[in-house]
Amino acid sequence: MGEEATRTVRTRLHIASGDRSWLHEARLVSREIFNQTICLKQQGCTRTEIQQEVDRSDFLRNNKCAVVGKALQTWDSYRSLLDWWLEQETPSGGKPTPPSTEKDCAYPLVMAYKEGYDLTVDDNTDRVQFRLSPKPYKHVKGHLRGAPDAMDELKRAVSSDEVDVGQAELLYRDGVYYLHVTVTREFDIPDPDQADTLVGVDINERNVALTALDRETMRTKGSLVLDYGRVKQERQRHHTIAKRCRKHGKKSIHRKLGDKEEQFTEWVLHRLSRAVVEFAELFSNPVIVFEDMSGIREEMQFGTYMNRRLHKLPFYKFETFVSYKARWGEIPTDTVDAYYNSKTCSCCGERGYREGRRFRCTNGECDLRQDHADRNASVNIAWREKVKLDSDDTNYRTHKTQPQVRLVRLFGSGRVSRPASSRSLAEQGVLADS
Ligand SMILES: [Zn+2]
């Protein structure tokens, strides 16, 4: 409880007044400050000494301090990377080199809120207005543009006491200036034990399956399977192209494709994790429950089946993204044992097996003949949470009527269809009668 977390809200600048060249110049000065900071650090100066030494009359004092701070962070990352490298007995790759002090290209302009930059919400237009001070007595003004949820986040931050607006960084790409604003918020995350709704999450290389059960009655409140099969195709495609490039010695293309693949996976993970949190938010006092993979990783006695489950997609990253976004929505997360969640019938608790995408129960008296195998697993995960919270290990899975599973594709089916918003994806999983 009372945890703090920061997040970066990404926006574009729509400049209405002031000179764009001031922004460019300030970013060049930022580079000079960066170079000077690294040089002084290499000479053994302390942070305070550096702050005193670096002095620019054409720059806001406060901005200078912020840029020095960012440069020192870069230095710290280099140092910890170097320490790690030195600890290795047979280090692979070259020795890390210190950050360059030779570059003369622009560097992000870092600004403190209310000092180097200011934000206000215009009551008439509902826009977030900005005012940047790239140089003393020189202001650039306008409004910010961004994704609707990012803008909502920022408006909340600017107009509420609960969210702290922190530093912002001014970046530039392809003719557009971007402002990345850091916001910090304190959270009061309830204990999982206070939950009324248990949301089981099962992830594998094709789907994320979600099921929300009422903790009291264990009736299904909602269920959703998000299909992201296209990601696998995309990864495969990149892999094939990359292999071909490697064969022909085109290293740079290979690297670029690697980045692209990484970015794509990252984007998908963000979308998926947001849909998970938004699904949970549709129910009262939810707790999001994952399988605890850490135990399995250590034991590794589950053979190829589990190994395959673990290594297909960065599941750990997915879990981190979900937890992070959940915390932002003040939703607790929890983990349960992963044993047999995929092989247990969510209806009667007996073992069953997977047949393609379906789950088949082997219990002759069980009414569950077929269910989506991944959804079945997500129900079991929610059940395990029930057992964990209420320390009740009697198996009373007697709900014969399993709701129809809703399968939603993350990317739509046709080429022209725009991806649906994660909120509308999430809403498709709520049962009408709950
Ligand atoms: Zn069964």
Features:
434 residues; Nucleotidyltransferase, domain 5; 2 domains; seven-stranded antiparallel β-sheet; globular; binds zinc ion
Furnish the topology, listing elements before pairings.
Blueprint: E1 3-17, H1 20-42, H2 47-53, H3 61-87, E2 109-111, E3 117-121, E4 128-135, E5 138-145, H4 148-159, E6 163-173, E7 176-187, E8 197-203, E9 207-214, E10 220-227, H5 229-247, H6 251-281, E11 286-291, H7 293-299, H8 303-311, H9 315-328, E12 333-336, E13 352-355, E14 358-361, E15 371-372, H10 373-390, E16 407-409, H11 422-427
Parallel strand pairs: 8-11, 10-16, 11-12
Antiparallel strand pairs: 1-5, 1-7, 2-6, 3-4, 4-5, 6-7, 8-9, 9-10, 13-14, 14-15
This protein binds zinc ion.
Descriptive notes:
It is a single chain. This protein is of the alpha+beta class and 434 residues long. The protein contains eleven helices and 16 strands. A seven-stranded antiparallel beta sheet has the order 2-6-7-1-5-4-3. It has a six-stranded mixed beta sheet with strand order 12-11-8-9-10-16, sandwiched between helices. Strand 4 (128-135) and strand 5 form a beta hairpin. Helix 6 (251-281) packs across helix 9 (315-328). Bound molecules: zinc ion.
Structural class: alpha+beta
Which sheet architecture does the biggest sheet show?
7 strands, antiparallel
Strand content: 15-25%
The Rg value, from CA coordinates, equals 26 Å
- Architecture (CATH level 2) name of the largest domain: 2-Layer Sandwich
Q: For this structure, what is the CATH homologous superfamily of the largest domain?
A: Ribonuclease H-like superfamily/Ribonuclease H
Could you tell me which ligands this complex binds, including any ions or cofactors?
Answer: zinc ion
State the domain count: 2
Shape: globular
